[in-house]
């Protein structure tokens, strides 16, 4: 069976943890940060888990991670 190609866009956006969960970055930390509270920016800076509904499709895009 031939090797599978990794979707490079997905590989840059998602990370698979040791237990097999998928991490993503939160939206809203690129610009217009002066109007956001410190607590909001602190929460937005931390990675979040993908919902279990989407986990299977994301893992197909990044087969060797």
Description:
Helices cover 35% and strands 11% of the residues. The protein is of the alpha+beta class. The protein has a single domain (8-28, 35-61), classed as Factor Xa Inhibitor (Irregular), CATH 4.10.410. β1 (15-16) and β2 form a beta hairpin. 3% of the residues are buried.
Mean pLDDT: 97
Tally the structural domains. Answer: 1
Low-pLDDT segments: none
Name the beta content range.
5-15%
- Helix fraction, binned, reads 25-40%
Secondary-structure blueprint:
Elements: H1 8-13, E1 15-16, E2 22-24, H2 38-44, E3 48-49, H3 52-61
Antiparallel strand pairs: 1-2, 2-3
Describe the structure using short key phrases.
about 60 residues, alpha+beta, Factor Xa Inhibitor, elongated
Describe the structure concisely for a colleague:
By secondary structure, the protein is α+β, with helices and mostly antiparallel strands.
């Amino acid at each position: 069976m031939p090797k599978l190609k990794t979707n490079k866009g997905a590989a840059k956006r998602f990370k698979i943890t040791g237990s097999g969960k998928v991490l993503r970055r939160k939206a809203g930390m690129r610009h217009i940060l002066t109007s956001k509270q410190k607590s909001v920016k602190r929460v937005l800076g931390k990675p979040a888990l993908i919902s279990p509904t989407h986990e299977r499709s994301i893992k197909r895009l990044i087969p060797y991670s």
